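Can't paste images in this forum, so I'm doing it all in text. The chain is below; anyone willing to post the predicted C-alpha coordinates underneath?
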Amino acid sequence: MGQIKIMPCLDMKNGRVVKGIHFVKIRDAGDPVENAALYQSEGADELAMLDIAATVEGRKTMLEWVHQVSATIDIPLTMGGGISTVADIEQVLKAGADKVSMNSAAVHNPSLVEEASREFGRDVITVAIDAKRNPQMPSGFELVVSGGTKPVGRDAIEWAGRCQDLGAGTLLPTSMDGDGTQHGYDLEFTRAVADATSLPVVASGGAGKLEHFYEAATEGGAQVLLAASVFHYRTFTIRQVKEYLRGRGIEVKM
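Text version of the structure:
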Protein backbone atom coordinates (compact mmCIF):
# COMPACT_ATOMS: atom_id res chain seq x y z
CA MET A 1 0.00 0.00 0.00
CA GLY A 2 2.91 2.38 0.74
CA GLN A 3 2.62 5.64 2.65
CA ILE A 4 -0.87 7.15 2.64
CA LYS A 5 -1.14 10.92 2.13
CA ILE A 6 -3.75 13.36 3.41
CA MET A 7 -4.89 16.12 1.04
CA PRO A 8 -7.29 18.83 2.19
CA CYS A 9 -9.20 20.48 -0.65
CA LEU A 10 -10.09 24.16 -0.83
CA ASP A 11 -13.20 24.58 -3.00
CA MET A 12 -13.05 28.20 -4.15
CA LYS A 13 -15.77 30.63 -5.21
CA ASN A 14 -15.55 34.44 -5.32
CA GLY A 15 -12.21 34.37 -3.50
CA ARG A 16 -13.52 32.38 -0.51
CA VAL A 17 -13.32 28.72 0.47
CA VAL A 18 -16.80 27.18 0.27
CA LYS A 19 -18.33 23.75 0.73
CA GLY A 20 -21.49 22.25 -0.71
CA ILE A 21 -23.48 19.03 -0.54
CA HIS A 22 -23.90 17.10 -3.81
CA PHE A 23 -22.15 20.11 -5.44
CA VAL A 24 -24.91 22.56 -4.37
CA LYS A 25 -26.11 24.23 -1.11
CA ILE A 26 -22.84 26.17 -0.86
CA ARG A 27 -21.71 27.76 2.42
CA ASP A 28 -18.65 29.80 3.39
CA ALA A 29 -15.63 28.08 4.94
CA GLY A 30 -13.09 30.88 5.25
CA ASP A 31 -10.01 32.43 3.71
CA PRO A 32 -7.84 30.29 1.39
CA VAL A 33 -4.45 31.50 2.62
CA GLU A 34 -5.37 31.05 6.29
CA ASN A 35 -6.76 27.58 5.61
CA ALA A 36 -3.72 26.55 3.55
CA ALA A 37 -1.26 27.70 6.27
CA LEU A 38 -3.25 25.90 8.97
CA TYR A 39 -3.41 22.65 7.02
CA GLN A 40 0.31 22.65 6.33
CA SER A 41 1.02 23.25 10.03
CA GLU A 42 -1.31 20.35 10.93
CA GLY A 43 0.65 17.95 8.71
CA ALA A 44 -1.14 17.96 5.33
CA ASP A 45 0.98 16.15 2.72
CA GLU A 46 -0.52 17.96 -0.26
CA LEU A 47 -3.17 20.59 -0.89
CA ALA A 48 -5.81 20.84 -3.60
CA MET A 49 -7.59 24.01 -4.72
CA LEU A 50 -10.60 23.77 -6.94
CA ASP A 51 -12.23 26.72 -8.66
CA ILE A 52 -15.69 25.17 -8.51
CA ALA A 53 -17.46 27.73 -10.67
CA ALA A 54 -14.79 28.09 -13.38
CA THR A 55 -16.03 25.48 -15.84
CA VAL A 56 -19.70 26.25 -15.31
CA GLU A 57 -19.19 30.01 -15.60
CA GLY A 58 -16.72 29.58 -18.47
CA ARG A 59 -13.95 31.71 -16.95
CA LYS A 60 -10.36 30.93 -16.19
CA THR A 61 -8.89 29.82 -12.90
CA MET A 62 -8.11 32.65 -10.55
CA LEU A 63 -4.33 32.77 -10.74
CA GLU A 64 -4.26 35.22 -7.84
CA TRP A 65 -5.40 32.48 -5.42
CA VAL A 66 -2.64 30.21 -6.69
CA HIS A 67 -0.04 32.97 -6.18
CA GLN A 68 -1.19 33.71 -2.64
CA VAL A 69 -1.56 30.12 -1.47
CA SER A 70 1.62 28.78 -3.10
CA ALA A 71 3.58 31.62 -1.47
CA THR A 72 2.29 30.47 1.92
CA ILE A 73 2.98 26.71 1.74
CA ASP A 74 5.84 24.32 0.84
CA ILE A 75 3.72 21.20 0.24
CA PRO A 76 2.63 20.34 -3.32
CA LEU A 77 -0.38 22.31 -4.56
CA THR A 78 -2.79 20.90 -7.16
CA MET A 79 -5.04 23.44 -8.88
CA GLY A 80 -8.19 22.53 -10.78
CA GLY A 81 -11.16 24.22 -12.35
CA GLY A 82 -11.52 25.77 -15.78
CA ILE A 83 -8.28 24.30 -17.14
CA SER A 84 -8.89 23.59 -20.81
CA THR A 85 -5.67 24.30 -22.73
CA VAL A 86 -1.92 23.74 -22.45
CA ALA A 87 -1.60 27.54 -22.05
CA ASP A 88 -3.94 27.42 -19.00
CA ILE A 89 -1.74 24.76 -17.44
CA GLU A 90 1.39 26.79 -18.10
CA GLN A 91 -0.15 29.86 -16.43
CA VAL A 92 -1.25 27.92 -13.36
CA LEU A 93 2.18 26.30 -12.96
CA LYS A 94 3.89 29.69 -13.42
CA ALA A 95 1.61 31.12 -10.74
CA GLY A 96 3.04 28.56 -8.31
CA ALA A 97 0.99 25.36 -8.55
CA ASP A 98 2.91 22.06 -8.69
CA LYS A 99 0.17 20.06 -10.40
CA VAL A 100 -3.05 20.66 -12.28
CA SER A 101 -6.30 18.76 -12.24
CA MET A 102 -8.53 18.66 -15.29
CA ASN A 103 -11.93 17.13 -15.71
CA SER A 104 -14.50 18.29 -18.31
CA ALA A 105 -11.80 19.52 -20.71
CA ALA A 106 -10.08 16.12 -20.72
CA VAL A 107 -13.35 14.37 -21.55
CA HIS A 108 -14.13 16.77 -24.41
CA ASN A 109 -10.55 16.81 -25.69
CA PRO A 110 -8.54 13.72 -24.62
CA SER A 111 -5.50 14.86 -26.61
CA LEU A 112 -5.12 17.67 -24.02
CA VAL A 113 -4.05 15.02 -21.47
CA GLU A 114 -1.54 13.63 -23.96
CA GLU A 115 -0.08 17.04 -24.88
CA ALA A 116 0.06 18.22 -21.26
CA SER A 117 1.76 15.02 -20.14
CA ARG A 118 4.37 15.37 -22.88
CA GLU A 119 4.96 19.05 -22.18
CA PHE A 120 5.00 19.10 -18.36
CA GLY A 121 5.51 15.46 -17.32
CA ARG A 122 3.04 12.83 -16.19
CA ASP A 123 3.46 13.70 -12.48
CA VAL A 124 1.98 17.16 -13.06
CA ILE A 125 -1.26 15.89 -14.60
CA THR A 126 -4.21 14.77 -12.49
CA VAL A 127 -7.47 13.81 -14.20
CA ALA A 128 -10.55 14.17 -12.04
CA ILE A 129 -13.26 11.65 -12.91
CA ASP A 130 -16.79 12.44 -11.76
CA ALA A 131 -19.36 9.69 -12.01
CA LYS A 132 -22.91 8.74 -11.11
CA ARG A 133 -24.30 5.27 -10.67
CA ASN A 134 -25.98 4.02 -13.83
CA PRO A 135 -26.79 0.29 -14.17
CA GLN A 136 -26.76 0.62 -17.97
CA MET A 137 -22.99 1.16 -18.00
CA PRO A 138 -20.72 -1.94 -18.03
CA SER A 139 -19.09 -0.91 -14.72
CA GLY A 140 -22.27 0.59 -13.26
CA PHE A 141 -20.73 4.09 -13.26
CA GLU A 142 -21.39 6.79 -15.84
CA LEU A 143 -19.00 9.67 -16.49
CA VAL A 144 -20.43 13.15 -15.78
CA VAL A 145 -18.96 16.59 -16.57
CA SER A 146 -19.58 20.31 -15.90
CA GLY A 147 -19.40 20.08 -12.11
CA GLY A 148 -21.44 16.88 -12.06
CA THR A 149 -24.35 18.35 -14.03
CA LYS A 150 -24.06 16.59 -17.42
CA PRO A 151 -23.97 12.82 -17.98
CA VAL A 152 -21.77 11.88 -20.95
CA GLY A 153 -23.05 8.40 -21.82
CA ARG A 154 -19.59 6.88 -21.26
CA ASP A 155 -18.39 4.30 -18.79
CA ALA A 156 -16.35 6.03 -16.07
CA ILE A 157 -14.05 3.05 -15.45
CA GLU A 158 -13.28 2.63 -19.14
CA TRP A 159 -12.40 6.36 -19.18
CA ALA A 160 -10.05 5.88 -16.18
CA GLY A 161 -8.05 3.29 -18.16
CA ARG A 162 -7.96 5.60 -21.17
CA CYS A 163 -6.61 8.45 -18.99
CA GLN A 164 -3.70 6.27 -17.94
CA ASP A 165 -2.94 5.46 -21.59
CA LEU A 166 -3.09 9.17 -22.47
CA GLY A 167 -0.44 10.02 -19.87
CA ALA A 168 -2.26 11.08 -16.70
CA GLY A 169 -0.13 10.73 -13.57
CA THR A 170 -2.88 10.66 -10.95
CA LEU A 171 -6.62 9.97 -10.98
CA LEU A 172 -9.12 11.69 -8.73
CA PRO A 173 -12.48 9.88 -8.81
CA THR A 174 -15.49 11.52 -7.16
CA SER A 175 -18.90 9.93 -6.95
CA MET A 176 -21.62 12.55 -7.24
CA ASP A 177 -23.77 10.28 -5.07
CA GLY A 178 -21.46 10.90 -2.09
CA ASP A 179 -19.97 14.39 -2.42
CA GLY A 180 -20.28 16.53 0.71
CA THR A 181 -22.65 14.09 2.43
CA GLN A 182 -20.06 12.91 4.99
CA HIS A 183 -21.52 9.39 4.66
CA GLY A 184 -18.19 7.97 3.51
CA TYR A 185 -16.23 7.72 0.28
CA ASP A 186 -17.77 5.73 -2.54
CA LEU A 187 -15.51 2.73 -1.95
CA GLU A 188 -16.90 0.73 -4.84
CA PHE A 189 -16.15 3.47 -7.37
CA THR A 190 -12.73 4.30 -5.86
CA ARG A 191 -11.72 0.63 -5.86
CA ALA A 192 -12.95 0.11 -9.43
CA VAL A 193 -10.71 2.97 -10.62
CA ALA A 194 -7.76 1.68 -8.56
CA ASP A 195 -8.19 -1.83 -9.98
CA ALA A 196 -8.54 -0.63 -13.58
CA THR A 197 -5.24 1.33 -13.56
CA SER A 198 -1.79 1.30 -11.99
CA LEU A 199 -1.88 5.05 -11.20
CA PRO A 200 -2.12 6.63 -7.74
CA VAL A 201 -5.77 7.24 -6.90
CA VAL A 202 -7.05 10.12 -4.77
CA ALA A 203 -10.18 9.18 -2.79
CA SER A 204 -12.59 12.09 -2.82
CA GLY A 205 -16.11 13.01 -1.77
CA GLY A 206 -17.95 12.07 1.41
CA ALA A 207 -15.47 11.74 4.31
CA GLY A 208 -17.28 12.29 7.60
CA LYS A 209 -15.81 9.86 10.16
CA LEU A 210 -12.28 8.72 10.96
CA GLU A 211 -13.03 5.18 9.78
CA HIS A 212 -13.97 6.55 6.34
CA PHE A 213 -10.30 7.44 5.82
CA TYR A 214 -9.21 3.95 6.84
CA GLU A 215 -11.76 2.34 4.51
CA ALA A 216 -10.62 4.48 1.56
CA ALA A 217 -7.03 3.31 2.02
CA THR A 218 -7.87 -0.36 2.60
CA GLU A 219 -11.11 -1.20 0.78
CA GLY A 220 -10.91 1.70 -1.70
CA GLY A 221 -7.27 1.15 -2.66
CA ALA A 222 -6.51 4.90 -2.59
CA GLN A 223 -3.04 6.30 -1.90
CA VAL A 224 -4.17 9.88 -1.25
CA LEU A 225 -7.18 10.76 0.91
CA LEU A 226 -8.82 14.05 0.02
CA ALA A 227 -11.36 15.75 2.27
CA ALA A 228 -12.86 19.20 2.63
CA SER A 229 -15.84 19.66 4.99
CA VAL A 230 -14.39 17.71 7.94
CA PHE A 231 -11.25 19.87 7.88
CA HIS A 232 -12.90 23.23 7.07
CA TYR A 233 -15.43 22.90 9.88
CA ARG A 234 -12.78 21.39 12.20
CA THR A 235 -14.57 18.10 12.77
CA PHE A 236 -11.07 16.61 12.83
CA THR A 237 -7.57 17.95 12.48
CA ILE A 238 -5.27 16.37 9.92
CA ARG A 239 -3.09 15.16 12.79
CA GLN A 240 -6.08 13.35 14.34
CA VAL A 241 -6.72 11.57 11.05
CA LYS A 242 -3.08 10.55 10.75
CA GLU A 243 -2.86 9.35 14.35
CA TYR A 244 -6.02 7.30 13.85
CA LEU A 245 -4.68 5.72 10.64
CA ARG A 246 -1.31 4.95 12.21
CA GLY A 247 -3.09 3.38 15.18
CA ARG A 248 -4.81 1.03 12.73
CA GLY A 249 -1.56 0.01 11.05
CA ILE A 250 -1.59 2.39 8.08
CA GLU A 251 1.72 3.99 7.20
CA VAL A 252 1.48 7.80 7.22
CA LYS A 253 4.02 10.61 7.41
CA MET A 254 3.69 12.29 10.80
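The radius of gyration is 16 Å. The mean pLDDT is 90.
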